[in-house]
Write a structure and sequence with these properties.
The protein is of the alpha+beta class. The protein has 2 domains: 143 residues, GAF domain (Beta-Lactamase); 145 residues, Alpha-Beta Plaits, CATH 3.30.70. The chain has a 6-stranded antiparallel beta sheet with strand order 3-2-1-6-5-4. Strands 8-9-7-12-13 form a 5-stranded mixed beta sheet, sandwiched between helices. Strand 1 and strand 2 form a beta hairpin. Helix 1 packs antiparallel against helix 5. It starts with 13 loop residues before the first helix and ends in an 8-residue tail after the last strand.
């Protein structure tokens, strides 16, 4: 899990992440490398980064869907191409000879391809043991690229909270609708001492709380800011009891946070937990149930956790 350090720099663009990957591949293979990323908004793929020693005219080039790199952006493949026509779908006039052939590997975010890495070099790049090192390097980076592309796409759709960079209410709804999990949980959290959340100080506290949440979740869990002092955690494949464990970690992390807002300022919160199938039967009922549980927790006092089970909601 990532450290709870809001000052820790995070990659901002596919270009910066791709450049780091291309340079790492160059050091590993001693061959020029480019990185291609698939854009879900436009359903196109283009070259976003190139290592030192690569023809800079390749930057921004659109990749043909039927090319080796284009196919690698859509599914997990490892292949080899003779010339930029095979690799990218078209050639660059007067290109450098050493960029006439190369290995292509998909960049994976889990099992989903988010792009491709093209290493200009001999065929033994994918026939020898270095292939495994290349795949490991590409796929470690793929997790970050996938999250960055998804965040940019979500911002374009208005699904991201401007203060924390996490999903907003609409983003949470989409994540829940898109989930294929038959078992899942939702934790609704209200932060009580988050005074004047729209001020600079309040926004700083909200960002810190968001960082605390992210640091206590799995990579595929979804933290969201759904109100000025309200957060939610969508937990795919989590039982009610498992979600309570997560809620307790969050309660501890938030409770340990203090801020100097005209004096030492501690935070408390109330958390409500609801689950499918223990509480409700459908995704549409999950958030209302978690909100009801959060209200019960609030009535019990600060730093309380409450759950709703199916019997308690007459469902």
């Amino acid at each position: 899990m990532p450290a709870d350090d809001p000052s820790r720099p995070l990659p901002q663009t596919e270009q910066s992440i791709g450049w780091a990957l291309a340079e790492a591949a160059l050091r590993l293979t001693r061959c020029p490398t480019i990185v291609v990323v698939h854009d879900p908004a436009t359903r196109t793929a283009s070259v976003v980064a190139a290592s030192i020693g690569t023809d800079r005219r390749l930057l921004g080039v659109m990749v043909a869907p039927g090319s080796a790199a284009g196919r690698a952006c859509m599914k997990d493949i490892v292949t080899y191409g003779e010339g930029l026509g095979e690799l990218l779908g078209h050639a660059v006039p007067d290109r450098r000879q050493r960029e006439g052939r190369g290995a292509v590997l998909s960049i994976l975010d889990g099992s989903r391809s988010v792009g491709a890495i093209v290493v200009f070099g001999p065929k033994d790049l994918i026939d020898g043991p270095i292939k495994d090192d290349l795949r490991s390097l590409a796929n470690r980076t793929g997790l970050v690229i996938g999250r960055t592309v998804a965040a940019r796409f979500a911002r374009q759709l208005g699904l991201i909270d401007a203060v924390t960079g996490q999903p907003n209410r609409s983003g949470l709804d989409k994540a829940m609708r898109d989930s294929i999990s038959t078992r899942c949980s939702l934790v609704k959290m209200a932060v009580h001492e988050l005074i004047a959340p729209d001020t600079d100080a309040g926004k700083a506290v909200s960002r810190w709380v968001a960082t605390v949440l992210r640091g206590r979740l799995r990579d595929y869990d979804v933290p969201a800011r759904i109100g000025p002092a309200e957060f939610a955690l969508f937990l795919p494949d989590a039982s009610l009891n498992g979600a309570v464990v997560v809620a307790d970690r969050v309660r501890t992390g938030v409770g340990e946070s203090t801020f100097d807002l005209g004096g030492r300022h501690a935070l408390t919160c109330s958390l409500g937990v609801a689950s499918i199938p223990e509480t409700v039967s459908t995704i549409d009922d999950l958030l209302p149930a978690a909100v009801s549980a959060c209200e019960e927790a609030r009535e019990s006092g600060p730093n309380s956790i409450a759950t709703l089970r199916r019997e308690a909601t007459n469902m």
